[in-house]
Amino acid sequence: MNIRSTTRWRGAFAALALAAGLQAQDLKQFEKRVTEFDLANGLHFIVLERHEAPVVSFHTYVNAGSVDDPKGKTGIAHMFEHMAFKGTDLIGTTDAAAEKKALAAVEAAYDALDVEKIKGKRADKAAIAKLQGALDAAIEKAGTYVVPNKYPQIIDENGGVGMNAGTGEDSTTYFYNFPANRVELWFYLESSRFLHPVLREFYKERSVVREERRLRTESDPQGKLVEQLAATAMIAHPYHVPPVGWASDIENLRTDDARQFFEKYYAPGNMTISIVGDVDPARMKALAEAYFGRMAKRPVPGPIVSVEPAQEGERRVSIESPTQPVEFIAYHRPNQNDRDDPVFDVAASLLSGGRTSILYKDMVRDKRIALAAQADATFPGGKYPGLFLFVLVPAQGHTLAENEKELDTMLAKFSSEPIDEAALARVKTKTRAGVIQQLDSNQGLAQLLAYYHVNYGNWRVLFTGLEDIDKVTAADVQRVAKQYFAPRNRTVAYTYQPAEKETKQGDSK
Q1: Mean pLDDT, range 216-235, rounded to an integer
Q2: CA–CA distance from 272 to each of 242, 266, 471 (Å)?
Q3: How many Cα atoms within 13 Å fall on the side-chain side of residue 502?
Q4: Average pLDDT along the chain
Q5: How deeply is 50 buried, as exposed, middle or buried, from its count of CB atoms within 10 A (0-12, 13-18, 19+)?
Q6: What is the torsion angle, in degrees rounded to the nearest 10, for the CA atoms of residue 256, residue 292, residue 17 and residue 14?
Q7: Assign residue 471 a region: left if phi > 0, alpha if psi is -120 to 50, beta otherwise?
């Protein structure tokens, strides 16, 4: 499953929102096709009728991600996402009662092993080997009751497509599409995995997640660099935690950790489900009450209270790598609900939104010192204050120091000189028209409706966001750039090749 939720990139969603506005013509017309309701347990539903084809897209949005991982248990949000595809007490097992006893035996064997391991230097190596053997045998026995991949198999056999999930910093999402005549099956399957999740094959899947980290982070220089950037820029706030988790935490996750995370964060009131396609809203509500109404109401967890202290000087971190040098430069910025959020989106588009953007024309096209010079308005998430990110990749014969110096020059101009009104108008027009085709899919709309409801309290921000973008002025962009793109507010992460001497880039300026 994907560990990076597509909803994390606020700028992309702004564009999607604008395109949605174009297709729907206006909010009032769009509202006529939307039905919203809450179940008694707090679960919120958004239903959008689109009868063009007999298909339906479903999107389940859980308002919890890696930012909510408990200390020492990083990666557990991601692990539960994997577990949600393992089935239920009725799906994925040959004998539920026997499997339950076998899984309990696995945990008992693991507990006994931990008791010995915790002794440290006093631990008996022979005893550890014996206990490890007992654990392996218990896991093997529990596996004999498993019907592999039964949950996704049922979806495939009934015409389901696009099944996937994603764990990001701020959220966990589950989604797929069904023929319109299979909607009740979706209600049964989706409600069952949150009513009766069975954490079967947990330790097998834990190994899969550990390998995922090895491939995507430990064996990938850019993956390592992203991780180091977040860990260096974010000291107090859990945005410094990678969604996949830290290696040692993953290796020690237990089923109780996943169960506790589920009980706390998968409360119905912390979940939103959007349904888009050839459906009858009245029937959707009746099915929702029949299936999801069975979920018990639980307290909704509060937000993260840790606040990242103001940065009081530039921070730098580097990684040795034999690959193409790359540099990330990040500036702290407020969260997505700040009044300047659309200004950051516009700034990112002006700076790196295609071949007419400022950085592309200067660094890539004209001076040819960079292969890429890009900006991202929101990293790593938007729910809490995060970062405005620049990515620099030098061209052959040019250095990171040279690229960084040029970026500094361009940002100084961006902050002090008037923003070109024609360029600003182009950015707004391009944002409006850029991704209309992506909104042809029910799945795209389902994703957006749930995202905007959870993150902004109202899916209608899909449309009011248009007005926010239109209201951004050249003076706004200059003000925000001057306020946030300051050297003391930035963190720099870069790679260098082993043959090179590691030097402070600032010394070469």
Answers
A1: 95
A2: 24, 10, 30
A3: 11
A4: 91
A5: middle
A6: -20
A7: alpha
Is residue 487 a part of any domain in this protein?
yes
| The pLDDT value given to residue 501 | 52
Measured from the Cβ of residue 135, the count of other Cβ atoms closer than 10 Å reads 21
User: Dihedrals φ, ψ of 125, to 5°?
Assistant: -60, -40
Cα angle 85-86-87, degrees, rounded to a multiple of 5: 95
3 state SS of 272: strand
Instruction: Determine the average pLDDT of the residues in 332-351.
Output: 95
Residues 256 and 87: beta-carbon distance below 8 Å: no
Contact 478, 415 (CB under 8 A): yes
Q: Which of 145, 175, 210 is the last residue of a domain?
A: 145
Residue 332: φ, ψ to 5°: -65, 145
pLDDT in tens, 239-271: 999 999 999 999 999 999 999 999 999 999 999
Kindly state whether residue 411 falls inside one of the protein's structural domains.
Answer: yes
Looking at residue 26, what is its pLDDT? Answer: 67
**Number of structural domains found in the chain:** 2
The pLDDT of residue 504 is 44
- How far from the centroid of its chain's Cα atoms is residue 182's Cα? 29
For residue 109, the enclosing domain spans 94-145
Cis check: omega of the bond before 54, within 30 degrees of 0? no
* Alpha carbon of residue 170 to chain centroid: 6
Q: In whole angstroms, what is the distance from residue 54 CA to residue 396 CA?
A: 52
In a domain, 407, yes or no: yes
Q: Is residue 351 part of a domain?
A: yes
Say if strands 370-379 and 271-277 run parallel, antiparallel, or are unpaired. Answer: unpaired
pLDDT band, residue 30 (cuts 50/70/90): confident
